Amino acid sequence: MVQKTAIGAGTWGVGTVIAMLAHWIRQTAVRFAPAAAYVLVCLGTGLAGLVLIVVIAVTCALCLAGIGFLLVPGVLRLLRTYAQFHRRLVGRMLGTEVRTASDPVVRTDLLWLLGHSIPGTALCALALVVCGHAVNWLTAPVWWQLLPSQRDRIILITVDSWWKALAAAVVGIGYAFVAMALMRPLALLHAQASRWLLTALPRPRAGLAQRVRELTLTRAEALDAHGAELRRIERDLHDGAQADIVAVSLRLGMIRRALERRPDQVPDLVDTAQQLAEQALDSLRLLVRGIYPPVLADRGLVEAVRALAALCPVPTGIDLGEAAEPTLRAPAAAEAAAYFVVSEALTNVAKHSGARTALVRLRTTAEAISILVRDDGHGGAAEGAGSGITGLRRRVAAFDGSTELSSPPGGPTVLKVEIPCGS
Length: 423
Fold this sequence. Notes:
alpha+beta
């Protein structure tokens, strides 16, 4: 009996390993195609970038003779268009928007061009060379028949028999798994480096007029969000509590008439009226929670986030760090905004992500509330796709905060929000 149990446990372990391996292969295969397409496009544009560097150098040299100044506007427009194309490309790869300043920043684009065209091209070439070697090993039996004179130059071993050709093909299968596993990390490394070069370098401070436009836009979005919230409250009152209170009023009228004509129906009518009154009370309580959750006022943001994580259908971990200090409280409006951000994010995780686990990281300081929500779902979340990201961004913008969403195909999805606490 003990022996059979041990064998069964071993069989279960092997089955689990095989299932995990099959899941990994499926996930890797799904992520390989977009990563390979990104690397291939970047290799082509990197080679074109080398040509553009030569053009810029020639233009600068011609400026010494004066004629180059006529070419500068066209070359700068070409550089700007080239950089904007890669901002969109990197944004699709990372599943987020790569923003840029409204005015051209030539220094940033030039530094990015150098990074993309030289080390970036080398990185893309390395990724494709790995794939090329995997193809060579896999197709060793074919090359052995078609190119007999090149048998010792195709791969690292000399293929002079069928068994060596088949052995090379078997090694090629493992080589292919390695190539597939490396393609996405290399593509993400290139995309993250490009994003940093395109966005993280110092930029000139925006002028007063630009700042006024930004504040006008965020305040207009805040008013739109406030109007939408008022319409939601009105709709909930009309469809919920108001309808129940009208029903209670009708039942009370029926009870009055029943007292005069059919007293035996009064107890049932009273029970019905009581149920309707309780429904109206529940609707009002739910509406109040949607305006300002009582748990925030009673127990604070930390406990409110714990409650949201506990109610989420997807198993959700919490990383509170210094946010667990009970004496540190942000302004009530900022805490309410943070609560609704976490609530909306976890709702999206449960409804749209297909995730198995999620994580909420919360940090509260005297300056800001920082929120990170991460899930291991299939990714692909975007604004305007019915996921509520637009409304969430508007809510945060009302506090002059920042919202950053990264959700590449295949996941993971990471939402970062920072809400200032100052006046």
